[in-house]
Amino acid sequence: MPKAIVLGGYGLIGRACLRALSRSGFDVSGIGRSRRSAHAVGLSVEWIIRDIPTLTVEDWRTILDGVDVVVNASGALQDGARDDLEAIHVTAIARLVEAAAALPVRIVQISAAGVSETASTAFFRTKAQGDKILSSGAQDWVILRPTLVVSQDAYGGTALLRAAASLPLIQPRVLQEAQIQTVYVEDVAAAVVESAQGRIRSGTIADITEHDVHDFPDLLAKMRKWQGWAAPVACPPIPAALVLATGKIADALGYLGWRSPLRTTALTALADGIRGDPNTWQSAGGSACRSLDETLALLPATRQERLFGRAYIALPLAIGTLALFWLLSGLITLIDPARAMSVLTERSVSSWLIAPTVFGGAVADILLGFGILWRPWTRHAALGMLALSSLYLIGSLFAAPDLWADPLGPMVKVLPGMTLSAVVWLLVEER
């Protein structure tokens, strides 16, 4: 049984490749840095839990022992707290190629349509550099360059399309000149299998894409219709400056660990157009890819699709609201601690408890407000908010029970915040 290893095996394309190769008779293993994400794939395959950019040439030689095919489906959209484009797209490929130089192994590289060393984004430039290293240094290789991948899994660009198409009542007109081609993720996986089986000659560089071309507003309209939403009431145009500002905010969040598909790299790529030449793949002997209409027909939208689209919009709003509420709560207390202390003093709370309670609570509020914005801590911060809110409620029953009957409802209003914290904890996946 031939052996294949998929780098980034739990990503959108990687997991589809794992499944397709396994169905085609390969003994498949995956490589990635997250054991939790690997487990979520749900396949009984061997996993090598390593951070791919940190693997040395010697590490690769050990990993490649007995391997017939390496599929590189790893990658990152933009530099951030957890991602280094140069490391993952260039350095890792160089070490892999060096390790495989004397081995009978085929490397199938998942690149991207439109890559170029002079491209407008670092993503495309570093991908192009990695492709060049592979094509000039490896003995047996195939480079596949998909366009915008559409999948049953909601991740990255596919999640963004679902969310944008799910906006209630409106369908903003944005990137109106952008020309986009799509490809079904299973067609990408099928191309990987054909390459892994040796049915595609070594040295092939091919775009994996449908023939049809869509402008971005029409693409969103098709996604909206597929999801089953009513036609939008309004389609307001979005100024380019607002789109750019959104991208800059998403870039900043990238340094807090968030991998938003609204970062400037994605927006620039969409604005430039995502196009490929399907003939490069078919002339190499590959099977034709399905059109977007055919892809969507294979993926009937369900209630879960619609709920995901709306939840994807609601989640960042919930996180932002909680961060703002907790930060302001702590800062307002620190600006005027005397007022907060007077509430406890008037209710005969022991004097030695007042200052630690007020200042400790304020600092805890601020830490939780910052913590929920830091991606690795978001779920923990949401639980912390639930716990601290519960302490406030319990403490108020003993120290200030009269506040529960206050017409402004200061204690009752804690309950919606707790509910919002619980929603964030439930919706944010640990990765």
UniProtKB/TrEMBL annotation:
TM region positions: 311-332, 352-374, 381-399, 411-428
Domain (NAD(P)-binding): residue spans on this chain: 8-162
Stored InterPro entries: ComplexI_NDUFA9_subunit, DoxX-like, NAD(P)-bd_dom, NAD(P)-bd_dom_sf
UniProt keyword terms in alphabetical order: Membrane, Transmembrane, Transmembrane helix
GO molecular function, one term: protein-containing complex binding
Protein name: Putative NADH-flavin reductase
